[in-house]
Specification:
single chain, alpha/beta, Rossmann fold, globular
Length: 276
Amino acid sequence: MDHRKHILSYTRRALDDYGMIRPGDRIAVGVSAGKDSLTLLCALAEVHRFYPIPFDLEAITVDMNFGGKPGDFSAIAALCEKLKVPYRVVPSDIATIVFDIRKEPNPCSLCAKLRRGALHNAAKADGCTTVALGHHFDDAVETFMLNLFFEGRIGCFQPVTYLSRVGLRVIRPMIYIPEKEVRAFAREAALPVVASSCPANGNTQRESMKQLLATLEHQNKGLRHRIFGAMQRGEIDGFHPASHHTSVSPEPEEAEEPEMEPENAQRPAQKPDPSR
């Protein structure tokens, strides 16, 4: 199976369906050094070669400074050089603030807010108009369920968001890509994934929801697909595609098998042609 073609097909379809790229955009890919953001970087670098709308691309990593030491991102720098994508690392003291000064018992929310702020500031300083994040299909379903379970509301992050206070658009070109495809591509392409040094890694509400959905998917084949389809049909937070395409989430029979260990009823929609 050519996972590269699948990644590009899903990415191209999301870009088209949600009008994610505008002529002349300069897009900063937020690269955390995990499999998702590195896959997004590779996908957009490839799309940049043939997409009919011209845009520029760069990559930015916010160094969390875990353990009071700068991270080693030399392998990512080498990948960016190979892809011909400008890359820079933004130093920060986020880990110290979250874990040592604030001593947050539930650190994820504050950490994400600080990382977003640092990334947005760096993107604006570089003259970027858009920030691209590596949230995928499973992330969207998990976020929807987390909001329902723990906040009592119907909602999710948006495929395209305009941040008026900073004057940036945020796009999520991987929202059609199942995590299993991302994982397979990362292996196939030998991406230089850097394991997370976060003390809270794998011990979060999101990880619990991932495992719950895996169990429910085992009992109700295609559950994730139906939840995502409901988000699109219900036009939850901008998930209804602007183009004529309908949902292109994974077919139920191809839904990911349950995977219990942590990892760093409408007709099924037509699956996109991987050759596209």
